[in-house]
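Duplicate of #3305? Posting structure anyway:
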């Protein structure tokens, strides 16, 4: 009657607060998820949550199943890891690199959690690479690359982690601070602060400014997010960052953040791995842990896609 997929669905519904986002989290369409829940409620003979509330409000029966899910699912995950280790799949190497200056907020907890459960896997994040990261996968210099710019490379698979929105941070006194969103032309007279990487790797250029043939008045680089925020807060420029990277500064009311265009600019972050490593139990577990951790610690991110699954 009660299946593991039901428990995973209820956890996703609790964490996201809506049927739409829960469906994305468990890779179902909204109609398939609704059908699954109605079927379970029919079997149990009672509702599990109150409809048309945001966030979702669970009934006592729903709360009881959530408690069960919190007990069972972590134990199942632990058992899967133990079985993989008993099968002799624990040895390995995970050398990774990051094409993302602001990823450490969720990546470091992911790595710490992974090391606790796979101590025999050699994990390293080498610094100062003087080569293109993604081709480093094909040469087996690296085993995983975190990127939002997938390139078609033979033998490389891109596992989507999550979607995020790019936002423009401005000072609270900036004339744009009262706007609902910004247009590319609004940045023509601005100093745009960016990380010291090629502009072709920055969404604010590739998805926002370049299509409109707009160039900022000045471009300034900064190594650290906190440096960017200091410059923005003092009125010395504006910067575009992932929504999660701005959460701390928005909560402290240091800056204001605006969508890039009325519809916003959304991107997907991927874990790039060699196809021959995809089925390694510890690689599968790292990617799953990365997804779970990102949703647990980041604000404003969304699942990276859906698929039909009844």
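Output from current build:
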């Amino acid at each position: 009657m009660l299946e593991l997929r039901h428990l995973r669905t209820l956890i996703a519904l609790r964490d996201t607060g809506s049927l739409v986002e829960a469906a994305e989290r468990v890779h179902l369409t909204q109609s398939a998820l609704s059908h699954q829940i109605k079927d379970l409620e029919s079997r149990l003979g009672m509702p599990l949550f109150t409809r048309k509330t945001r966030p979702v409000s669970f009934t006592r029966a729903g709360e009881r199943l959530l408690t069960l899910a919190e007990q069972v699912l972590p134990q199942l995950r632990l058992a899967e890891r133990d079985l993989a280790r008993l099968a002799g799949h624990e040895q390995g190497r995970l050398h990774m690199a990051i094409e993302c200056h602001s990823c450490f907020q969720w990546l470091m907890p992911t790595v710490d959690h992974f090391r606790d459960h796979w101590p025999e896997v050699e994990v390293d994040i080498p610094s100062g690479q003087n080569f293109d990261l993604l081709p480093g996968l094909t040469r087996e210099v690296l085993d995983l690359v975190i990127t939002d710019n997938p390139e078609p490379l033979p033998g490389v698979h891109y596992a989507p982690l999550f979607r995020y929105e790019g936002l423009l941070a401005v000072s609270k006194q900036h004339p744009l601070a009262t706007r609902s969103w910004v247009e590319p032309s609004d940045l023509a007279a601005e100093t745009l602060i960016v990380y010291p990487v090629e502009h072709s790797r920055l969404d604010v250029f590739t998805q926002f400014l370049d299509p409109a043939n707009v160039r900022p008045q000045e471009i300034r680089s900064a190594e650290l997010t906190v440096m960017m925020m200091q410059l923005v807060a003092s009125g010395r420029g504006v910067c575009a960052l992932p929504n999660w990277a701005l959460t701390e500064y928005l909560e402290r009311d240091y800056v204001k953040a605006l969508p890039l265009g009325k519809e916003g600019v959304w991107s997907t972050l991927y874990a790039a791995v060699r196809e021959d490593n995809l089925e390694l139990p510890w690689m599968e577990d790292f990617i799953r842990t990365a997804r779970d951790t990102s949703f647990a610690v980041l604000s404003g991110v969304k699942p990276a896609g859906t698929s039909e699954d009844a």
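Confirmed duplicate; merging threads. Residues 306-310 have pLDDT under 50 and may be disordered. Residues 92-162+268-297 form a domain with the D-Maltodextrin-Binding Protein; domain 2 fold (CATH 3.40.190.10).
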